[in-house]
Amino acid sequence: MPPAQRHPTMADVAERAGVSTSTVSRTLRGLSTVSPEVRARVEKAARELNFAVSRQAASLVTGRTGTVAVLVPTLDSWFMGSALSSLAPLLRAAGLQLNVYEVPDLAERTAFFEHLPARRNADALLVFSFDLTDEETARLDDLGMPVIYVSRQVAGRPSVYVDDVAGALHGTRHLLNLGHRRIAFVQTAGASGFSFSSDERLLGYQQALTEAGVPLDDALVVSTRAGDKRAAAEVLGTLLSLREPPTAVFAEQDELAVALIWNMRRTQIAVPERVSVLGYDDQPLADWFDLSTVAQSPSDMGREAGELALKLIDDSGADHERHVVLPTYVIPRATTAPVARPRDEGERHTGGEGTLGRAPS
Amino acid sequence: MPPAQRHPTMADVAERAGVSTSTVSRTLRGLSTVSPEVRARVEKAARELNFAVSRQAASLVTGRTGTVAVLVPTLDSWFMGSALSSLAPLLRAAGLQLNVYEVPDLAERTAFFEHLPARRNADALLVFSFDLTDEETARLDDLGMPVIYVSRQVAGRPSVYVDDVAGALHGTRHLLNLGHRRIAFVQTAGASGFSFSSDERLLGYQQALTEAGVPLDDALVVSTRAGDKRAAAEVLGTLLSLREPPTAVFAEQDELAVALIWNMRRTQIAVPERVSVLGYDDQPLADWFDLSTVAQSPSDMGREAGELALKLIDDSGADHERHVVLPTYVIPRATTAPVARPRDEGERHTGGEGTLGRAPS
DNA sequence: ATGAAAGCGCTAACAA
DNA sequence: TTGTTAGCGCTTTCAT
Known about the structure:
The structure is a homodimer. Chain A is about 40% helix and about 15% strand. By secondary structure, chain A is an alpha/beta fold. In chain A, helix 5 links the parallel strand 1 (about 65-70) and strand 2. Chain A is elongated, with a radius of gyration of 27 Å. The interface between A and B is large, with 58 and 57 residues. Strand 2 (about 95-100) of chain A pairs antiparallel with strand 2 (about 95-100) of chain B. The first copy, chain A, binds a DNA duplex through helix 2 and helix 4. Chains A, B: This is DNA-binding LacI/PurR family transcriptional regulator.
């Protein structure tokens, strides 16, 4: 390990190339007002010295940090991994760095909004999935940089999100179209700081039922913790012990749906013959479980949000209220099928139709 | 949206508090040489002005950026999500920012090593999971900051990793102890830029067989693409059509193991009765599939790497060759069981013992 | 097309 | 305990 030798500065490059630092600066930023020969000399010197511009020094004078910050509830989730993975190359291509603020709990959240460490240290902030208070939003408003809300709709601020009402509406319609009338909706309780669009999804579910003339039944709307097999077993028991149990379950997250299916397999409840299960998200887990689901694309969100950020950084006159609404898609796989004939649950009168949802993929 | 009003500077705070900028600086950095009354005045002024120190300006003089950079092949993986998720709070607590360089393909990789954008923009670099060339390692050596290698052992440089030879050794022993003698090993081919310790794991597998007196058979070592169901079906076919097919399969990644199980379920090959399957990683997917596996902890790696980084940043005299080796654990779940009696595959002569691996969890 | 000089917002001697 | 001063390494007028 070489002892931390000082980094070469522009002055070093300038000296070696026999020019002034101004010329070095102009060359390295690609300004056209440099003669080809001088440019060549400078670039050679810079390469030989392994010179890299100090963003610190540059940003001190330009007022730009060359950094985009993201505020995320966690990094350990399919959603964030996918979203950041499409955001990162986009920023890289624009010569921007990516700064991550992970705020997994209330203490960190409070600290973040109190000190706003991103202030002066980024050119834009992308806020993912948080359900902010008005006060928090107001704090971000005077952060002095464009703030883009992702996976979250915030009135009057640039936002990128999917239409969860429509997503849940279509998902529920899919079940209705299969003949289901007793459709349960399973919500997430106490998510790990993550804010799902739980209310919107419930609303879409209710809208679909209403438009189909199916009465809403509060007993069919339950909530549980995500990724908890035991908790899923409990809600499953609750639902299946209703006087009129559901023939289909719509879980507002794939993880929830999979936890239900896991329990059903264990207890010999046939999916989808006895109960259809529909998820929401289309994360990789859904594919492994052949789960029918409502797909959203976090990578599209990351990309759209990144592009919006770049636009807002460049054009301070750009449209600061722009909303980008991304679509959802119902992906039928093997866990949704036509409802079994009522009062005939053991038998399959509908034959081929009954296994339609399990067609070889 | 308020027009990007200029950020207040220390001079503004100083004026408002009626002191010099030096005093403001000292106060805000928590130096003890400030009288309580003055400190109070300064803090009040800073709060009222919503002042935040410009790291750019500070680092220009201190030579420290207050940032730790991570170089990762992708952000969209269980491993990285988990590792960064434990790294982030640690850095936050130390007042450091987290800068992410995602290098998903060769082009980006080349660009990264050519320009080393982290130079001068971080106080330390954590390199995750890359199988670097000597030249690349050499480039990082003169980056002018501590470089810590994570999930990768690099001679003479600080590294944090698990002992994959031992992990695979123990995993294979688990299968041997269950009576298996025909044990296949499935490798990953052409991973998505990610470098697994494939060779080490294979070595551990071979060591275990050798120490048990089981001859190595090249036909039992196959490779396929991860997360590809179709490709998994092919290697499964290859293995099962051997003259002496394996009774157990050790996949070097959980995803691979799950893909095999998925195909076996589809084709009515009983797991673990007919074939035992063992994975490696213990990612969440393993739990969902009740997969027996060899566990490693990326979150421990993230934490250890972070702590090592902090140490190396502070103590430039610290041990720069320190290696932290983390343990692996065999986690038996429901996909490994004692081998069925040879030539008796249809029957279960071993009764209770045969279903040991599926005991209710 | 190039250079000289000023200054971005801080911190770190050094004085007082 | 506090203030004064001199830069840190760049970019940006303004000259030339």
